[in-house]
Amino acid sequence: MNNEFLKNNHPCELDKQESHNFTIDETPKEIKLFNRDGANLKLISEDGRLWKFDVDEKHKYILEYCRVGYQKGDKEIDFIDPSGGPMLSCGQRLSKNYVIDFIIEVDGQLMIHTQELEA
Fold this sequence. Notes:
The chain has helices at residues 3-7, 11-14, 61-64, and strands at residues 22-25, 29-33, 41-45, 50-55, 67-70, 77-81, 88-89, 98-106, 109-116. It is mainly beta and 119 residues long. It has one domain (3-116).
């Protein structure tokens, strides 16, 4: 998906697209996330399984005002929703290559664990 597509489509419509608002660069492993606030928001991973958020300096608030949802009666994180999106939930496909396995918090930082899908 290219940036021109993102500029010409409303975020609600993008959710219906196969790529789910994500673009991926395999080297280094980086997934660019579409954000309505215009933030340069992405997930970065060294191993392709555990991803941490990265955002530009101007939009640090994106992660500071992140909504977190838990499974009913449980302490396991079910979804996270950074300010301006996108909302990410367990079982959601990040691209044609990855699906979210679980979401954890490590030292106050939210991280996403994925499984790589077979080609």
